[in-house]
């Protein structure tokens, strides 16, 4: 079964479903996996940090990751077994001053994972093209389909 993860959304599963998201420009996809429990989650976040309480925590890397990790724990994941992979954070038509939104999203994801004590095993970030991501919580594989490159599995 395929579970779609929309923009500013997350999903978790403890079966052999595939978690899929598309439309990653400056957004980031954070895939978190507990191999022992076969529990995984995928977050598609738009912005780095929530500024106080928000209506949709998944819109932001920090609050979205917190919410997704809580749901993973409820499915039996163990904090000490979690690993992560990261994709996205392109600089697409970015008109911001300083670091692009994509670069800030990547930095926020790296910081949030480190704060949660989760090892970031691999990432495929930056550049200026869009991505689609498929994540298999059973294997831990993240398949990245870029507009301008070969399909990559991390």
TrEMBL record:
Name of the gene: cheD
Pfam families recorded: CheD
A molecular-function term among this protein's GO annotations: protein-glutamine glutaminase activity
Lineage: Archaea, Methanobacteriati, Methanobacteriota, Stenosarchaea group, Halobacteria
Keyword Mitochondrion assigned: no
UniProt name for this protein: Probable chemoreceptor glutamine deamidase CheD
Catalysis: reaction(s): L-glutaminyl-[protein] + H2O = L-glutamyl-[protein] + NH4(+)
Signal peptide range: none
Keywords from the UniProt entry: Chemotaxis, Hydrolase
Matches recorded under InterPro entries: CheD-like_sf, Chemorcpt_Glu_NH3ase_CheD, Cytotoxic_necrot_fac-like_cat
Biological process, per Gene Ontology: chemotaxis
HAMAP family per the UniProt record, alphabetical: CheD
Family stated for the protein in its record: Belongs to the CheD family.
């Amino acid at each position: 079964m395929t579970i779609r993860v929309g923009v500013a959304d997350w999903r978790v599963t403890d079966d052999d479903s595939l978690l899929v998201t598309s439309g990653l420009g400056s957004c980031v996809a954070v895939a978190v996996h507990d191999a022992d429990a076969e529990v995984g989650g995928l977050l598609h976040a738009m912005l780095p940090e929530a500024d106080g309480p928000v209506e949709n925590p998944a819109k932001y890397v920090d609050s979205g990751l917190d919410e997704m990790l809580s749901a993973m724990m409820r499915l039996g994941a163990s904090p000490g077994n979690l690993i992560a992979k990261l994709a996205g954070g392109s600089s697409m038509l970015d008109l911001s001053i300083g670091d692009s939104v994509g670069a800030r999203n990547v930095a926020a994801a790296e910081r949030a994972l480190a704060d949660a004590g989760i090892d970031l095993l691999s990432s495929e970030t930056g550049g200026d093209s869009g991505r689609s991501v498929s994540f298999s919580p059973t294997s831990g594989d993240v398949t990245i389909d870029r507009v301008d490159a070969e399909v990559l599995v991390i």
